[in-house]
Amino acid sequence: MTTAAPDAAGGTRRSADGFRRAYRPVDARVVAGVSAGLAEHLRLPVVWVRVGFVLATFVHGTGLLAYLLLWWFLPLQAPVDGSPGLESARRRGLRTGSRGPSRRDVVQSAAIGAVGLGVLGLIALGGGWLEGWMLPLLLVVTGIAVVWRMFDDAAWNSWLRQTEGPAFAMRLLVGLAFIGLGAIYILTVNRGWSAAVDFFAALAIAVVGLSLILGPWILGLWTDLGTERRERIRSQERADVAAHLHDSVLQTLALLQKNADDPATVATLARRQERELRDWLYGRQDDTATFATALRDLAAEVEANHRVPVEVVTVGDAAPDDGLRALLAATGEAVVNAAKHSGASRVDVYAERVANGSGDRMEVFVRDRGTGFDPDAVPADRLGVKNSIIGRAERHGGTARVRSTPEDGTEVALTMPVSPGDKESA
Amino acid sequence: MTVLSVLVVDDHAMFRTGVRAELERLGSGRVEVVGEAEDVDTAVAAISDLRPDVVLLDVHLPGGGGPEVIRRAGASTTFLALSVSDAAEDVIGVIRAGARGYVTKNISAPELLDAIDRVAGGDAVFSPRLAGFVLDAFAGTIAVAQVDEDLDRLTEREREVMRLIARGYAYKEVAKELFISVKTVETHVSSVLRKLQLSSRHELTRWANDRRLI
C-alpha cells in the first residue's frame, strides 16, 4: 500500500511541460505541508523527511532554513478542478470536510520537533554553543514564521475563506514585535542599551532594503489574490447552477423513476437524464478516452436504444489498445444481446483490471436475469454469439465464455490481456 | 415479526415524502417511519429522541454531511446510507464513518425494504457500485481521502464475494456460485465492512476494546 497509494493518489501529477512538480498538499498540512509534499514527490515515507529536517537543523540550522525556503518556493497544490456537484456540496457544508492532517501526523511532527528542540537545548546548555543567542534567535524565527504564515494563509484563504481584517493586523503586529524584540535583545546583550538607537537606524535602512527586495513579491501576491478571488466567484456561480440542478432535476428524476405508471418510457427517459446529470455533477472529468469511459458510453447508448437499464461498475482502468477495443466491441454485442433478447429488466456490466504476475488483464462480465438460452443449441447460421463475441475475443488473444440457464439468465465472461506500458492510465 | 422503526434523514423534503409514502405503502407491518430529519442537528436530536432501529441517511447534509451524523449520534444506531451521489469519496466516506450499507436513491422500494431488513439484522448491504468502489479502494486505484495506508487487506474469499456482488449477484446467488451458505456470504461482507471502517490501528484497538476482546 505504501508504494501504490501515493502513486494512485496523485503522485503522477504532471504539469503541461511534462515535468513532475512538487507541491505542498492543501489538505494534509501539519505546519506548511513541506514535509508531506516533499515525501510525496520523492516517494519517501513522510517520517524520514521530517526526521531529516530536524537532523539537518543541527548542522548550523540548515534544516530550518531549507524548510523555510521550501515553504516559500513550493507552490501550494492547486485545487483539483472538482466536479461542480461535489464542489458545491463541500462549499455549502453538506459534506464532511477533506481529511486535514491525521492525528498521527500531528503527534508525530510534534514529537520529532520536541526531540529536536531538546537536543538543541542540550547542546546550547552543555557546550555553550550559541550561548546567549539561542533565545533571541528562536524569537526572530518565530516572528518570521508568523508573518510568513500569514502571507501563506492569504493565498490559502482566497479559496477557503475571506481574509479577516483584525486577525490580519494582529498577527502582523505580533510578528513584527517578535522580530523587533529579538533584534533588540541580540543587540543589547552584547553592547547594552546604547545600541538601541543605532539599531533603529539600522532597522530603517533594513526596512527600505527589504521592501526593495520583497516589494515585487508582495505585489505579485496581491495580484494573485485578485485573480483567485475572480476565479472563486466564477466557480461559485457554476456551482450554484449545479446545486439548483441537483436539488430539482435530479431529485425529481429519482422519484419519477420509482413511481412511474408507465414504467418503460418514463424510466428510460429519467435514466438518460439522470445519467447525463450525474456525469456532469459527480464528474467523469477525464475526457481522455479510457476503457472505463468507453464502456460507460457504450452502456448509455444501449440503454437509449433498447430501453433497458445497464449498470456499469468498473474497477481499475486502462488505455484502449487493439485488444481492448475488440473486448469493448464484444462487450457491446453481449450487452445488446442481453437487452434485446433476454427480456431482463436490467443488465449488469462489471469490468475489472486484474493484476497478474505475467501482465494485467481486463475482465468483463455481462449479466442479465432474463430467459437464458442454450449456447450449444444456437443454430450454426446464427453468428452473433459465436463470431461477434467469442471469435472476436479469441482473435485478439482473449477468452470468452457464455453461461446461460433458463432460471438464472445469462452471463458472458470476457477477458483480454492489457498491453504493458500503460500503467500511467490505470 | 417486529416492526422496524425507521428515521429518514434527507435535506430534500420531496424525497423524504416519497420514501415515506413508499415505505408505508409496501412495508406496512414490516417498517414504520417514525420521523424525518433534514440536517445534522435535527438528525442527531431525532435519533436520541426516537431511537429508531434504522436510520436512512443521506450523504450530503447541511451541517457537515452524513458522516458527521454518525459520529455525533454514536454507535448504538444502525445507519443505511441512501444517496444520490455516487462519487467514490462520498460513498466510501460514509461507510468509513460507520454506515452499515449504502444504496443509491434509484433503488426500488422492495429492494430498499430488503436492505433495511438486512442492516437491522446486523448484516451489511453492498450495492454493486459500492462493491466496485470497495475493490478499487483496497487496490489503491482510487484516491479516497479517507482510505489511509493502514487499510487491512482483503482475503481472497472476501475479494471473490465483493467481485460477485459488483457483478450484480444477489447474496444467495453469490452463495450458490461459491458453494457456501448465505450466512457465510454475510459474514464475509460484514468483515469487509469492518476492515473498511477500522483501517487505522487506533480504531481497531477501540473496536476490540468495545467488544472486550483485549
- Overall average pLDDT of chain A: 73
- Largest sheet entry of chain B: 6 strands, parallel
Strand order in space, largest sheet of chain A: 1-2-3-5-4
Distance between the termini of chain B: 36 Å
Count helical runs of chain B.
Answer: 10
Kindly provide the radius of gyration of chain A, computed on alpha-carbon positions and rounded to a whole number of angstroms: 31 Å
Distance between the termini of chain A: 16 Å
Radius of gyration of chain B: 17 Å
**How much strand content do the residues of chain B show?**
5-15%
Compute the number of strand runs of chain A: 5
Q: What's the rounded overall pLDDT mean of chain B?
A: 81
- The helix/strand series of chain A, from N terminus to C terminus, equals HHHHHHHHHHHEHEEHEE
Question: What amount of the residues of chain A lies in strands?
Answer: 5-15%
Spatial strand order of the main sheet of chain B: 2-1-3-4-5-6
> What's the total helix number of chain A?
13
GO molecular function (chain B): DNA binding
Keywords (chain B): DNA-binding, Phosphoprotein
Protein name (chain B): DNA-binding NarL/FixJ family response regulator
Domain Response regulatory (chain B): 5-120
What's the short story on this structure?
Chain A has helices at 4-11, 34-42, 46-58, 62-73, 84-91, 103-127, 134-157, 165-191, 194-259, 263-281, 291-306, 322-341, 384-395; strands at 310-315, 347-354, 361-368, 399-405, 409-417. Chain A has 426 residues and is α+β, with helices and mostly antiparallel strands.
